[in-house]
Amino acid sequence: MTDLVDLQAPAPARRTPRSLTLSVGLVLVGLHLFVALLTLFWTPYDPTAMTGGRLEPPSWAHWAGTDRLGRDLFTQIMIGSRIALTVGAGAVAIAAAIGVTLGVLAAFATRTLDDVLAATFDILIAFPTLLLAMLVVAATDTASLFSAILALGIAISAIVARLTRILAKRVLAMDYITAARTAGSSWPSIVFRHVLPNIWPTLSVNFALQFGIAIIAEASLSYLGLGAPPPNASWGRLLQEAQGTVYTAPFGAVAPGIALVSLVIGMNLLADGLRDVGDPTRRRSR
Amino acid sequence: MSLLRIENLTIRTGGQALVKDMSLVIEPGARVGLIGESGSGKSLTALAAIGLLPPGLKPEGSILLDGVQVIGASEEKLKALRGRTAAFVFQEPLTALDPLMKIGRQVAEPIARRHRRDGRSAGRQEIVAEVRHYLERVALPDIDRIMNAYPFQISGGQRQRVAIAMALACRPKLLIADEPTTALDVTTQAEILELLSTLVREEGMALLFISHDLPVVAKVAEEVTVLRRGQVVEQGPVRSVFGSPQHEYTKMLVDAAAAFDRALGAQQ
């Protein structure tokens, strides 16, 4: 009898080949990561040195042309990758630390505390991310790379907290949590063994999405002069500098734009692909 | 000393009483059935017994589990009782198992916890050996594969066996089975009932078997309590309660079961 039952069980899932989405995402993000690491050791030119004429179009010597001071744009865009990835990773790390902690806390809290926390998340989310980040930057006096990371991290943490709270609440209502409690599990063990692993697939996808949003937000902050100050070559600042000459030297705006878009799209594709990999019940479907 | 002694238990939410003046005694090693329609308060009674009522539900009366008063007890005290004194098997084995944890790790958890409580650290090898022991105990085939499988990769009957193994691994004095066969097909149901009866007898555990299904209860229990709308309507040995039911509701249950048997007989 047991043999009969056994035959009906599905075969153990094998690791499915990575989906196309995931591959393209990995390639785009990987490329930026490679370039970012490369700039730590080598760049084609000194990013602050005047190495050519002003506003030169792309050429073999200057792949993306030069800016209005004659500096190599490609070098600056490469360094921009490093800035963007640093800001994205830093902001998501801060948002994850604050957001997941508060979200789980709210899910476990008494009714009143939960209501207060949930309302706080909602109010913070009601502020546009960029506006919130600008407020934080303003509060930190001087614009620096760190203040931009902190600002975006705090702004995004509300989104992460709200998502975590909802996901954790859903998991806490599951039978296997009751089962674990009836068997004598403590709350910390339930959080680390059951809640976090079960919300992780969804959370990680969201982190990748927020990573992309943080990069765009950093570019916006820099564009407004609130991000990393010169000589940090943020893409947002490159775009802002190219604005005045966009009709005479369009490539100055197009090149950092392409860099920005490729990284953000890469992150979003990665997020999509991660969704399939993170959940074992979905692995077999592709 | 009785293992579980529930006296005049009333469970309220708002102004409404979900369980009224309920009393139930389980002696060590006894097999007790709790029968009633859905919403009659069976599961609430069981959850109240280990102090796990959902928030908003207030128990009154007295519940002595292994000599400890459960009502009003601290979470610390209750945690020590859970698993060690009473362990649960639930109705729907798919949702009662963590979907993202491999079976082997899930069964290892209560084992590791039991060792921690006993104040000794067990090595990985030792725990794995115990996991295998309990999976063998519930007659699962192909244990190596099952230990490395996720819950969705094994059948419903196998999942319920895993859930039973997890409860056994706590080495409880009382096993509370809340509709453990309701989500299973009929043949698997019979196997699981058989398994539960054997295990309870062999391990010397008491069993509280909750069901809405009279023939199922009659198969595993020696004593039965019939609940209706939160109140006990009849209580006693299975033979006398089902043999000569006194209350209208019990009569109805028995008649319904008998009518089914007659219909089967007429077919043959």
SSE topology:
The complex is a heterodimer of chains A (286) and B (268).
Chain A: H1 2-8, H2 20-38, H3 73-108, H4 111-126, H5 129-139, H6 145-172, H7 175-182, H8 187-223, H9 235-243, H10 251-278, H11 280-283
Helix pairs in contact in A: 2-3, 2-10, 3-4, 3-6, 3-8, 3-10, 4-6, 5-6, 6-8, 8-9, 8-10, 9-10
Chain B: E1 4-13, E2 16-26, E3 31-35, H1 42-49, E4 58-65, E5 68-69, H2 75-81, E6 86-89, H3 93-96, H4 103-117, H5 124-137, H6 143-147, H7 156-169, E7 174-178, H8 186-203, E8 206-211, H9 214-220, E9 223-228, E10 231-237, H10 238-243, H11 248-267
Parallel strand pairs in B: 3-8, 3-9, 6-7, 7-8
Antiparallel strand pairs in B: 1-2, 1-4, 4-5, 9-10
Strand content of chain A: under 5%
Give the CATH topology of chain B.
Rossmann fold
Q: What's the helix count of chain A?
A: 11
Task: Provide the structure class of chain A.
Answer: mainly alpha
Task: Name the CATH class of chain A.
Answer: Mainly Alpha
Of all chain pairs, the largest interface belongs to: A-B, 32 and 47 residues
Q: Assign the CATH architecture of chain A.
A: Orthogonal Bundle
Assign the CATH class of chain B: Alpha Beta
Structural class of chain B: alpha/beta
In total, the number of strands of chain B is 10
N-to-C span of chain B: 49 Å
Give the uncertain stretches of chain B in residue-range form.
none
Oligomer: heterodimer
> How widely separated are the two ends of chain A?
32 Å
Number of domains of chain B: 1
Helix fraction of chain B?
Answer: 40-55%
Subcellular location (chain A): Cell membrane
Pfam families (chain A): BPD_transp_1 (PF00528)
Membrane topology (chain A): Multi-pass membrane protein
Domain ABC transmembrane type-1 (chain A): 81-271
